[in-house]
Protein 1
Amino acid sequence: MKKTILITGTNRGLGLALTKIFLENGDTVLALYRTHSDRLQELKNNFKDNMFLFEVDVTKEIDIRDVFSQIRRITSSIDILVNNAAIHLENHRPELEKTDFEAIGETFEVNSISPLKIIKYGIPLVKNSHNKLIVNISSEAGSISNQTWRESEYGYCMSKAALNMMSKLLHNRFKKDGVKILAVHPGWFSSDMGGPEAPITPLQAANNVARTILKEWKIDDQIFVDYDAKLMDW
Ligand SMILES: NC(=O)c1ccc[n+]([C@@H]2O[C@H](COP(=O)([O-])OP(=O)(O)OC[C@H]3O[C@@H](n4cnc5c(N)ncnc54)[C@H](OP(=O)(O)O)[C@@H]3O)[C@@H](O)[C@H]2O)c1
């Protein structure tokens, strides 16, 4: 059955690649972006009828509310809602003494709080759908237990741990409505965030993530998983 899928951060990286994969599969994609890109426009040109573009900064709640009222004019249901947009402002791994606390705040705003804003307005449409799936793109960087090896990148790691907590809270709240929540670590891939050294491309990562998302999930199955649908430690 063809699905309606909402994805944030679709102009580049994983979000763009996921959009391409689902469109090629015949699904309808509600593609949210902040900055337009030629590659996004190219997809729109190729998939005119199945792709709907919405410009929004995911930190801005009023703009998100407006986007969802536009979306409601197109569809009353969203099968899969993917919170993908994120920032990592500490790729050079500054020491604690050089930590920029404003950057940490901004990172929390985009990576932890904005996904909850998107879900606030998206959940009624997800509940109306067949699949009823919410996917928060997380990271092994947000795993506190034995996966943690970093000594800094406070904002990014802490914000992804918070996203994981949000995923569990949403699971507790919405499982009675049949909504499944996943927090997916996509692996290390060569986007602007991942850098050129990464072992796989965004398209390879997106194929892995799409395969994981499309598994037959049951409500009480694991929440935090990797690109192979394997359980991750919180
Ligand atoms: N790359 C990796 O190796 C890796 C590893 C583990 C997890 N992840 C996770 O995978 C996801 C995708 O990462 P990526 O590597 O594809 O990142 P990326 O190439 O840096 O792209 C980030 C995306 O997020 C969007 N974005 C950032 N702030 C936004 C805002 N305020 N409003 C709307 N959109 C915003 C960007 O839009 P603009 O162009 O407008 O900035 C862009 O589309 C993220 O959740 C990331 O944490 C990545």
Note: Residues 8-9, 11-15, 34-35, 57-59, 84-87, 110, 137, 139, 186, 188-189, 191-194, 198, 202 surround NAP (CB under 6 Å).
Protein 2
Amino acid sequence: MKPLTTDTIAAIATAPGEGGVAIVRLSGPEAESILLQVFRPAGRNALPLTSHLLTYGHAVSGAESIDECMAVLMRAPRSYTREDVAEIHLHGGAYLSQRVLSLCLDKGARLAEPGEFTRRAFLNGRIDLSQAEAVMSLIAARGEQSRRAAMRQLQGGASAFIREAADELYALQAGVAACIDYPEEIGEDEAAADLIPRALRLAESLDAACDERAGRILQSGLQVALCGQPNVGKSSLLNALLGEERAIVTPIPGTTRDMVTGDVTLGGSVIHLTDTAGLHHTDDPVEQIGVARARQAIEAADLVLAVLDASHPLTDDDRELLTSLHGRPCAVILGKADLPAVLTPADVQPLLPEAPVLKLSANTPATLAPLKTFLAEQAAVSDRLALTQPRHMAAARRASSHLRQAAATARALTVDMASLDLQAAQLALAEITGDEVEEHLLDRVFGMFCVGK
Ligand SMILES: Nc1nc2c(ncn2[C@@H]2O[C@H](COP(=O)(O)OP(=O)(O)OP(=O)(O)O)[C@@H](O)[C@H]2O)c(=O)[nH]1
Ligand SMILES: [Mg+2]
């Protein structure tokens, strides 16, 4: 396929700051000629450059050598963008890479937009839109679980699932067309009897592929709120889990007023912890705001840890908190287990029978192991999820709702009237792979990328 773009883009592909190497990347028809104006290979027989061969030489401005470096040319179509791509591997200085980028721009390259290299890979048909998004997820992955999900998507996992669903949709549309074109051969009832169950089955399989909770966990980690009465040891537990003194801890009740957050990776999954202000009735307006925020954090959490001080008897406020968590994913923490115990699991279990009760002391790291295992289990998502990105799930849900509508229309009205719903479902699926996509959606997707990718 002939590349669709005509200009040559350039950007610094490595993260800003100082490092071992910094890479300036070019893509487009002028990549080779611009490279040869800013890079002089050292070897006498290096020219013409051999594709995909890293070559030693100098970055140059006219006759002046700016840096000793390496460069590589990857001729189309065997490149990331399917265009000619050139990379200059400089010493990793912020000024140095900026200087070489400026030289490339002087020689006719245009500064790349965020994600424009990947956008070109998409436009030139090397990857579909869901794979392009997987590149970004791979870069953003902070744990093994998110990396694996992104890699599955990059290798076409989501695309394969969507294309299979789209094939079934084409088959349904063909059935409707046949009923319209050959009414004497395929009767309305016969067509409806075929269309309705198949449309509903497809809608079900699309819905089953949408696990919004799993998608959220892969993208931002499992959201865990630590809550409880003042002074029970919430902030101490946060610090113990993070392995650093993130939140202030004092013996004074009401120490934490605002929310304090931190991430820890357990079992390959990111756990996003939020420490909250102690829940209690207060006239202090600042504390009141803190308590309101604590309640919001509890509401928004995927999992709540209700922290109790096991060296004190249960209070009415504790009882109220525990009963309010019915039906929510949660665990009860019997904290300060190094002190003489007043509370036992038997005291709290009747109040919240479905929640595990974990005894621990924030002062004794070894006692945190069962809680860490529990958190890792809660954050684990299936390796077989077909869809993992919110944008894909939203589109698949839309397709599913159009399919259900198609079934309802075929049942209540006529099969041919269902074809509009089937078309709308098809468009929603095509948005996922980018087969049918508007410019503004591409701007939104690639706008989230970093420059140089
Ligand atoms: N012995 C013992 N003391 C603890 C433990 N955890 C916390 N404490 C002490 O309990 C007091 C309160 O701890 P924090 O972690 O500040 O409690 P909190 O729940 O965050 O309190 P607020 O922010 O006021 O709501 C401090 O003096 C801690 O040192 C523990 O496991 N064992
Ligand atoms: Mg605190």
Note: The chain has three domains: 9-128, 132-211+387-434, 220-379.
